[in-house]
Amino acid sequence: MPGPAAPQASGPLPEQAAVWGLGRVYGLDHPERWGGLVDLPALPGEDQASGDVVVDLGARALDRFLTALAGDEDEDQFAVREDGLYVRRMVRKPVDTEVGERRTVGLTGTTLITGGTGALGAHLARRLAATGARHLLLVSRRGPDAPGADGLERELTELGARVTIAACDLTDREDLARLLSGVPEDAPVTAVVHAAGAEPPAVAIGDTDLDDLHEVMRAKVAGALHLDALLGDRPLEAFVLFSSGAGVWGDGGHSGYAAANAYLDAFAEWRRGRGRTATSLAWGAWAGGGMVHEAEGDRLRRYGVPMMDPEVAVGAVQQALAHDETVLVVADVIWERFAATYSAARRRRLFDEIPEARLLDAAQVVGRTADTDPDTGAAPGPAQSFAARLAGASRAEQERTVLQLVRTQVAAVLGHDGTGAISPGHAFRDLGFDSLTAVELRNRLKEATGLGLPATLVFDHPTPAALGERLLSELAPQTTGTDAGDLSPLDALEAAVAALDPGDDVSRTRITTRLQALLWRLSDGPTEAPVGGDADDTLLEAVSDDEMFDLIDKELGLN
């Protein structure tokens, strides 16, 4: 990572927090392999010659470490300390009740906002200008050439602020030093808001390499390090870092982004440990072009994280500064949706101290059997009609119907117009599924079929074909048998015929002719060839049933 290494200090180290952010995403992307995270106490000493850390936990700490490994499987984030074994929880912060702890942040000098011409920085700049900020220095890679920069400068000036918009590469320490050297002497930097950074496209953690992580993390991490180093011990009214909920609870497919934001949260605590001001705000989604695009709004709301009104969000910034907070999560969360989705693949304890999430978890435990038929496991509702559709169909038709249901619902979850891109053997992970979309697919299939389906459905059955087989085995169980009336070969034959290319007239004609001959034989019809038949058709009369099936299988490519 470019920039100076953070000096050692007591308290959490940002580099370790970044590893935890990475680990939390792994837990979402691979819940079936996930074990958890354990933070060990500071280790005494280091072999300076070899650079190897001397591991000596001590008897009590070692005992706690083993307890963490062998303890409650639902717990997956531990901290081993001399005074006890700790687990990780989110708790609600009733800021408004702490009236006596408020402070005034005057912003009498220059307020530097990185990412200042972006959506988040612009929203905050408007609020600060309207509440008396003296000089706003808005920094971005393109500076005055950024889209909308001219209009933003006019708007802020009309609100009474002095405004400078400048281009700067935050990952380049010399470039940032040049920028800071140009700050007017009559308005030195007294506050910093580090809002730079963009959310990258989703990439599975297994497909992410070190270069990818470096690219995603560099602006956020290097920017924070350079600002801290160049501003030195200068007294600041505020040093605000714009983080994300992805660093707190993870975000499937965004390992680098989660690691970078977890780093910022720990960096704020690390600065506080050195006696400097710092506040990190882990945001949910902003409306109006914030950390996610507007097109994502409907999807996020379904998951339980609706987009926040920017005016409410920037008000939270001022609230956090007034109470001198260090790390806060600021998000609009519909807990009955979000907590259920987050814990879909496996139970997670992070939100156990949030009352709404705790009540939901208790309700789910009770409801696992209360809302299903004790004999069939199926939930009541209009989905019974789907089972009725399958009842009178052949096995091949049942397989086609269920597979089409799965492909249709997969396409709907992923936002496709049709099922053309959803092949039966295509792995869900390759299609872009994560824990959230997996839950949405489970819910859609549960509603369509009436089955009581587990949250791990997609993880247990990794392709549409495999998932279709699972659903059909519950909707229309097939009895096994080896008697002469077993029609499963015909079911397979029917499925193969249905899969033929409609435009392949030659193959369809040849198969039709042969099947007609077989039908005549089964019906004790005439022994001569049907009208329009050829020598091959006549030969069919002289072969056995087994030979007949073998011949048809070869024609269809089944052998």
The count of domains is 4
**Percentage of helical residues?**
40-55%
Report Rg.
31 Å
Shape: elongated
Q: State the CATH class of the largest domain.
A: Alpha Beta
Largest sheet: 7 strands, parallel
Per CATH, the architecture of the largest domain is 3-Layer(aba) Sandwich
Question: In CATH terms, what is the fold-level topology of the largest domain?
Answer: Rossmann fold
Strand order of the largest sheet: 6-5-4-7-8-9-10
Q: For this structure, what is the CATH homologous superfamily of the largest domain?
A: NAD(P)-binding Rossmann-like Domain
What is the averaged pLDDT score?
Answer: 79
Question: Overview of this structure, please?
Answer:
- This protein has helices spanning 14-29, 59-70, 119-130, 149-158, 173-181, 210-231, 246-249, 255-273, 297-303, 310-322, 335-342, 355-370, 384-391, 395-414, 428-431, 435-449, 457-460, 464-475, 488-498, 505-522, 535-539, 545-556, and strands at residues 37-39, 77-81, 84-87, 110-114, 135-140, 162-167, 189-194, 238-244, 279-283, 327-330.
- The longest helix has 22 residues, at 210-231.
- The model is unreliable at 1-10, 46-51, 365-382 and 526-543 (pLDDT under 50).
- The strands form two sheets. The chain has a seven-stranded parallel sheet with strand order 6-5-4-7-8-9-10, sandwiched between helices. Strands 1-2-3 form a three-stranded mixed sheet, with helices on both faces.
- It folds into four domains: 95-333, Rossmann fold (3-Layer(aba) Sandwich), CATH 3.40.50.720; 335-370, no CATH class; 384-475, Non-ribosomal Peptide Synthetase Peptidyl Carrier Protein, Chain A (Orthogonal Bundle), CATH 1.10.1200; 488-556, no CATH class.
- It is elongated.
- By secondary structure, it is α/β, with parallel strands linked by helices.
